[in-house]
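Our consortium's second objective concerns turning raw sequence data into structural hypotheses that experimental partners can test. To show how far this objective has progressed, the report includes one record in full. It was chosen at random from the queue rather than selected for favorable results. The single chain below, 381 residues long, was entered without modification.
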Amino acid sequence: MRIGIVCYPTFGGSGVLATELGMALSAKGHEVHFISYQQPVRLNFHPNIYYHEVTVQNYPLFDFPPYETALTSTLVHVITNNNLDLLHVHYAIPHASAAYFAKQILKKSGRDIPFITTLHGTDITLVGRDQTYAPVVTFSINESDAITAVSKNLREETYKHFPIEKEIHVITNFVDTSKFHQSDKEHFKKMLAPSGEKILAHVSNFRKVKRVEDVIKVFEKVHQKIPSKLLMIGDGPERQSAEELCRALGICNDIRFLGKQEQMDEILSIADLFLLPSQYESFGLSALEAMACGVPVISTNVGGLPEINVQGKTGYLSDVGDIDAMADHAAYILGDDDTLQQFKDAAMEHARTFEKSRVIPLYEALYDAVLKEYKEKMEVV
């Protein structure tokens, strides 16, 4: 099968999932073509993988270069030149509408191609609901040949806020446990926590929805009870405010801001607890990757997080903004080594239920079903 994957190339969950999916498909013999404005951060070389860059020209006339138009034209060229069988676009804005436009252009020349849209979160719950985008988002999702969402919650949110006329298939995010697993990085741990302090970690793009200041506040309370260090991994608009808060609280010596990192499996292997106090998470891929490395999770109880973080088993869930409850739960897990190990073991075991090998066949089955239906329609025409 020749598959085109359209995604954002960043560290966010949609780009990571799309990249991991494409690499897994290529390993199974499919020819995969990535289309984006930059090479995805986790994309590795494979003989079955191709990368096509979307180039946007800057003209004095445009305050904002028309990326969607450039993407549409690139899709037309890639589909035509490589005889793709289908497109799989990740994150509705603007990828689904670009796929629809490309499909209509190709129809004029007697070529047609089905496209699948995967919804990831803020394309539905935040950006997509803005009336500036909502009509186009609704239309392009409904024009998709198939729709998937990464959690049951996201499917419900989509039906709640958009007049979607088609079935939305839930295919969850997944984790590659051959990469994300508990490994011996004791030498790294001793460098960061030379006196045996517990290590807490947070990973995100540091947007407001991630509530990174809550991470600092939770850590400050835990730090008062238990010798500990905090690793802040990622970057974004809220990083400066988080750094200012740690200085105001006088705990900067025990917090490291590591910026964007690619070897997340190695970093998570030295962590004892993962903090994710987000306002909303459609799924929480970073939490799942932490769990696969044997790291229990303290998170909010929003979106798809209750679908992966099992209360009292793999970690704890609390209301958004409930700093005290999150800190108390964190201190409970970290306060006793036997308790911590029980949570670590349970987190790792539960993460295996989201193993890559279980999820990839679901996408392949959907691809087959879409192509079969598409071919039947073409035969009728």
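The partners drew two points from this record. The chain has 14 helices and 13 strands. The radius of gyration is 22 Å. Both points have been shared with the crystallography group to help prioritize constructs.
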